[in-house]
Specification:
The chain is of the alpha/beta class. The protein has one domain: 4-Layer Sandwich (Metallo-beta-lactamase, Chain A), CATH 3.60.15.10. Helix content is about 25%, strand content about 25%. The strands form two sheets. The protein has a seven-stranded mixed sheet. It has a seven-stranded mixed sheet with strand order 7-8-9-10-11-12-13, with helices on one face. Helix 8 runs parallel beside helix 9. The longest helix has 19 residues. The protein starts with a helix and ends with a strand.
Length: about 300
């Protein structure tokens, strides 16, 4: 009896694990949500993280908060396929699983991985300083990961990460990546830490990853103009008072409507009344809407 129970338990776990695995392969261009939740503990949603798939490969990773490392594995993405990583800002729910992903990176990649992120201010370092503090072979929190920073770190023969800082104070967009048919631009967004959004152009379509913002920068509408897909964060409840870090649902909808995007995807969802938030959003937005969930795949083209 005990043996049968153990076998049954392992079979159930295997089925559950297999069912959780989802991939976006087979689409010309698609986005996949790794984590659709926010910073609070949530039994159903990992923290923020997103993949952009081109054909059979996940080419761009945007953020990787808590739980993202597991979701990355479940997505069947490969670290060796990534063209770049974009970090929007340095809050833990957007960055905490980067170290976990990098632990095997010096064995998984042959070429350095470009990483982009915001400049700093008094409340946060720039992204290069942040990663140095995390991975430096002598002074880092994870000294064992020194080799990811390059030859000067722990005797590595090449860097695994090629880190570049994007000026998060500039009003105009900055082109950060342009290779192999993929162009990425970045622009500042208003949040409680220096933060940037990314616009990806590839395969004749455009995708904008907004991340956390309070929606007060009118130039973001121009940045997202006519995007085939806009991913925005709906982190606070309907009828919320003004928030320095996050846009209310009605503001999220207004931005998407004014930008004329072809589809809005909302993510970074807190534990509030979701139906009420969606209803408020729809008072200012009339286009196609997708409410995000972990491992969800949305075809762009």
């Amino acid at each position: 009896m005990i043996k049968r129970t153990v076998v049954s338990l392992f079979a159930t776990l295997a089925i559950t694990s297999h069912a959780a695995a989802q991939t976006c392969t087979g689409n010309p261009v698609a986005i996949q949500i790794l984590g659709s939740g926010g910073p609070g503990i949530n039994p159903d949603r990992a923290s923020a993280g997103y993949l952009l798939w081109v054909g059979s490969q996940a080419k761009i990773l945007v953020d990787l908060g808590g739980g993202g490392f597991l979701r990355f594995g479940q997505s069947r993405a490969k670290l060796s396929d990534l063209a770049m990583v974009g970090i929007t800002h340095l809050h833990p729910d957007h960055t905490s699983d980067i170290a976990a992903l990098m632990w095997g990176s010096n064995r998984a990649r042959e070429a350095a991985l470009p990483v982009f992120g915001p400049s700093g201010n008094g409340a946060a370092p720039d992204v290069k300083t942040f990663l140095n503090r995390m991975f430096d072979a002598k002074t880092g929190s994870y000294q064992v990961l020194g080799p990811v920073l390059g030859a000067e770190q722990a005797g590595a023969d090449r860097p695994v990460l090629d880190v570049s800082v994007v000026d998060a104070t500039k009003d105009e967009p900055t082109k950060v990546y342009d290779r192999d048919g993929i162009t990425v631009t970045a622009t500042r967004i208003p949040h409680t830490l220096p933060a940037i959004a990314y616009r990806v152009e590839t395969g004749g379509v455009s995708v904008v990853f907004s991340s956390d913002q309070n929606g007060t920068n009118p130039k973001f509408v121009d940045f997202a103009k006519n995007a085939d897909l806009l991913l925005m964060h709906m982190a606070i409840a309907a009828k919320s008072p003004p928030n320095p870090g996050h846009a209310a649902p009605v503001t999220v909808g207004r931005i998407a409507q004014q930008a004329g995007v072809k589809r809005l995807v909302v993510s970074h969802i807190g534990q509030f009344n979701l139906d009420e938030a969606v209803a408020e959003l729809k008072t200012s937005y009339s286009g196609p809407l997708t409410v995000g969930a972990d491992l969800q795949c949305t075809q762009v083209k």
